[in-house]
Amino acid sequence: MKRRTLLVVAPVVTAALAVALGVALWPSRDAWASSCTGEISPSRQSAEVKDAARAIQSAARGASAGIAMVDLTGCTDVAGANASALFPSASVVKLLIALDALAGKESDPAGLERMLSLSDDKVASELWTANGGAAIVRRMNERIGLQHTRPPARAGRWGETLTSAADVARIYQHISAKLPKERRIALTDALSSAPRTAADGFDQYFGIPSGLSDREWAIKQGWGSTDDRVVLNTTGMVGGKHKYVVVVLTSWPKNTSWPTATKAVTKAVSELHGLVGSTSLP
C-alpha cells in the first residue's frame, strides 16, 4: 500500500470543476437521515472503548488514538476515549471540503462523488484552492459548531488540518440531521459506495468496513504521513437497530508499517462491535 504525504495543492481554478469522472448515485431513500440535532459530547468510558484504545496503543510504542461513538437514533453519547485530542485529519477533511462546495453556488456532483468515494486528492486540491483553503475550515467550524478543528499550519496541506474524534462525530451528526435532504443524499451515497481500492491504490477497507463488516456503512477514511508521524483514520456512520457514528483517529511513529497500523485500527473497531445494534438499517 502506498504512503502519501498529507498535502496536495492544485492550480487555482476559476470556473466550475471539469472533473468528468465517476457517477453520482441518487438512492430512492434517505437512508442516513436522523433527527439528532442536540448537543452531544462523546466522552463516556466503557470496557469496549478501553479495549479499542488498547488495540492501538499496544500495536506500536508511541501510537495514540481518539475515539468517539454517537447513537444518532437516540441522539446520545455511546462511548469516547481521548475524544477531544487533536489528530491530523488526512482525507477526513474532504467531508468539510464537500460540505463547503455543496453550500456554494457551483458544485460538480461527479467530482464530489469521486473525491469522497475514491478519496481522490486531485479533486480535493482543486476545491481547496478554488474555495479559499483554510477559509473552508473556518466557515465549516462556524456552521457546524466544531470546537477543536483547525486549518493546517502550512498553506495548502489540507490533510494536515487538525481535528478531534468529537468534532468528526459532530460533522456526521450535521450531515444526518441538519443538512438539506438533497445534499445529504449526495454525500451519503458517495460515502456508502466507497470501493476497496482508493484513487491512489490504497486499500480503504480497514477499520469500519472490516471491523464492522456485517453492518451497512457510509465511510470516509484517511491515511498519510506528516513530517514525523503516520496517520490512519476510520470514520463513518454504521447501520443497525440504531444508526451510529463511529470515529477512530490514530497517529503512529514514522517507522510504523501500514499493515501494522491497518490491522490495529481494524481490531480497535471490532472491539466496538458489541456497542452497535442489530445488523440492518430500519
TrEMBL record:
<feature type="domain" description="Beta-lactamase class A catalytic">
    <location>
        <begin position="112"/>
        <end position="250"/>
    </location>
</feature>
<dbReference type="InterPro" id="IPR000871">
    <property type="entry name" value="Beta-lactam_class-A"/>
</dbReference>
<keyword id="KW-0378">Hydrolase</keyword>
<dbReference type="InterPro" id="IPR012338">
    <property type="entry name" value="Beta-lactam/transpept-like"/>
</dbReference>
<dbReference type="InterPro" id="IPR045155">
    <property type="entry name" value="Beta-lactam_cat"/>
</dbReference>
<dbReference type="Pfam" id="PF13354">
    <property type="entry name" value="Beta-lactamase2"/>
</dbReference>
<dbReference type="GO" id="GO:0016787">
    <property type="term" value="F:hydrolase activity"/>
</dbReference>
<protein>
    <submittedName>
        <fullName>Serine hydrolase</fullName>
    </submittedName>
</protein>
